[in-house]
Amino acid sequence: MSAYAALSQAGYRAYTRDKTTLFFTFAFPLIFLVVFGLIFSGQEVEQSGRPYISYIAPGVLSWGLGNAAVFGVGFVLMQWRRDDILRLIRMTPTPTSAVLASRYVLALGIGAVQAVLFVAVAMLPPFGLELSSGWPYAFLMLVVGVTAFLALGVIVGSFTRTPEAVAAVANCVMLPMAFLSGSFFPLDAMPDWMQAISRVLPLRYLNDGVSASLTGSGTTGDILFSCAVLAGFAVVFTAVALKTFRWSDRT
Predict the structure, then answer these.
(1) 181: left (phi over 0), alpha (psi -120 to 50) or beta
(2) What's the rounded Cα separation, in Å, for the pair 222 and 183?
(3) Which positions ≥6 away from 147 have C-beta within 8 Å?
(4) What are phi and psi of 51, to 5 degrees?
(5) How far apart are CA 68 and CA 165, in angstroms?
C-alpha cells in the first residue's frame, strides 16, 4: 500500500504540473463538441428523429475518456521504461499491480472530472443536451470504460519505445475506432457493414452505454448489456497487458 500511495501521489503531482497536457486532456473533446454541436445545432437524425446532440455528446465524451486513458498510460509507461524508472521501481518491493493501480486511480479521477465538465458544457443553450433520469449509470460506464481502455493503453505502452511510436499506434487504434463506433457520426446513418464491424469494437459499447444513460436512448437492460460486454473487453485487455508488461527495454 505504501508503494501504491507513493506512486499515486507522484503521478498526480506530475500530471498537474504539466499544464499543457492538463489543458488539452479536457479541451480536446470539448473542441469536438463545440464544432459538431454548432454545425448540427437544432438538426435531427432522419433515421431516428432524435437530435444530433444526443448522438454527438455521448459519442465524443466516450471517445475522449478512452483517448485520455490510452494516451495517458501509454506515454507514461514508455517514458518510465525508456528512462529506466520502471527498472528502479522494480528494485524495490513494488509489484506490477501497484504500478498499474496507481495509474488506474489517476485515470478514473481524470475521467470523472472530464465527464462532469463535458456534460455541463453540452447542457448549455447553444448545444441543448437534455439528461435522462438514468444519467447516474454513466458513472458505471465510465469506470468500466476507463478500465478497458487503460488496459489497452498498457499494451500500447509496452510495445512502443518512443513518444512518436506511442502517438502513431494510439492514434491508429483510437481514430478509426471512433468513426466506426459512432462517436462522430450516428451509427443509425451508417451502412450495415460498418454497423457490423462496430460490434467487435469496445468503443461501440461505451458509446451505447453512455448514450443510453445520458439521453435515455436505451433501457436499463441495454446499459447493463453494454457494461457487461465492455467488462469482457476489460478482462481480455488486462490479461494481455499483464502478459506483455515490461519493466525495461532491455528485456
Answers:
(1) alpha
(2) 18
(3) 104, 231, 234, 238
(4) -60, 145
(5) 16
Residue type at position 152: L
44 C-beta neighbours (distance < 10 Å), count: 13
Best-predicted range by mean pLDDT (87-96, 131-140, 221-230): 221-230
Contact 186, 47 (CB under 8 A): yes
CA 104 to mean position of chain CA atoms: 12
Which cell goes with 198?
462496430
| Chain center to CA of 92 | 31
- pLDDT tier, 224 (very low <50, low <70, confident <90, very high otherwise): very high
- 177, 96, 247, 230 alpha-carbon torsion, rounded to 10°: -10
- Average pLDDT of the chain, as a whole number: 87
Look at residues 188, 210, 211, 77 and name the one whose alpha carbon lies nearest to residue 139: 210
Question: pTM of the predicted model, to two decimals?
Answer: 0.89
